[in-house]
Amino acid sequence: MGAAAQEQVRGGFTARYGAEPDGIWAAPGRVNLIGEHTDYNDGFVMPFALPHQAVAAVSRRADGVLRLHSADIGGDPVELRVADLAPESDRSWTAYPSGVVWALREAGHEITGADVHLASTVPSGAGLSSSAALEVVVALALNDLYGLGLRGRQLARLCQRAENVYVGAPVGIMDQTAAACCEAGHALFLDTRDLAQRQIPFDLAAEGMRLLVVDTQVKHSHSEGEYGKRRAGCERGAALLGVAALRDVAVDELDAALERLADDEEAQRLVRHIVTENARVERVVALLEAGDTRAIGPVLVAGHASLRDDFRISCPELDLVVDTALASGALGARMTGGGFGGSAIVLVEAADVDGVTKAVEGAFADAGFTAPRVFEAVPSAGARRLA
Ligand code: GLA
């Protein structure tokens, strides 16, 4: 974040609360390279952090009051009492930061209040984890100000609990871990069972490639039904197969598993996606570690087909991005994030960026869809203190 933007957040805090903040923190949005809907199946994911981030100026308070203000929403600060915070009592944006305070207190940490001023450049509803960025930036700020000594993974777990229980969205652990733990120039290979992680160097520019994010502008919301239905369907599939989670079905056991689910077509589709998707993450890691980056393209495309046909969470706009990008020379493309709208990623040779971008924009115009927002994603830093 530029010094000017940081000063703007500091100024926003001072204007609301009449004093300098104790500090300023940032946490990024993410795109997921591969490994979709595997996180609540104890599987593998591979996100990296975007340069877009939520920034929070925060001061500690001792009187039990929590004040929240967002430069993006405007209006007066929302004032709450930390002792009154209760799950699912709040349906507005403030549920994310106040849910984090609730989760910290639930975990036994004595949080006696805070003044918070937030500003975010992560597009919301675009499948780029704007909510996790808000949660993690507040969690990190309170961790520092209250000297809690929690590590990135612990903060991620607390933020996930805030979102599951306080906000009421049944999300997995990927987005919060990405915001907390990603490193610039790397993708994060994460085993969501135990949060074991490996930073995989991912510098496309050095190899003459780019990764484009195409935000279809189709809004999605995870608390609205379909995400939860997929999650419940996967849990049902695991129960039918007698495993703790679908992660426990290896790819060479897939045929036998599908055989056992022969009279349950829906369970078959969900299981096939998760099992093959975990294998695709491992394949992408192997290719990147072998320096064979261009070869990940077809793996991304296979991941999209699986999400579209088996998991059934794509939409016409996402499919159009993928089909058009591939037809105009992209190396690979897939939807990213929870689905039902949001964003796709496109892997391209640097020389093809303009051609592919124009082709996608033209196809959207021809189809009568809202113009997409296209930008280049550079793997950026995870959550940190700025000042
Ligand atoms: C959303 C959720 C994540 C993950 C993805 C799909 O982003 O927040 O936990 O399940 O969808 O991979």
N-to-C SSE string, H for helix and E for strand: HEEEEEHEHHHEEEHHHHHEEHEE
Helix content: 40-55%
Task: Name the strands of the widest sheet in spatial order.
Answer: 5-4-6-3-1-13
Report the biggest beta sheet as strand number plus sense, adding barrel if it closes.
Answer: 6 strands, mixed
Q: What ranges have pLDDT less than 50 throughout 5 or more consecutive residues?
A: none
Q: Based on the structure given, which CATH architecture of the largest domain is correct?
A: 2-Layer Sandwich
- Quickly count the domains: 2
Distinct small molecules bound, one entry per kind: alpha-D-galactopyranose
Coarse morphology:
globular
Distance between the termini: 12 Å
Oligomer: single chain
Q: What do we call the CATH topology of the largest domain?
A: Ribosomal Protein S5, domain 2
Total helical elements: 11
What is the β-strand count? 13
* β-strand amount: 15-25%
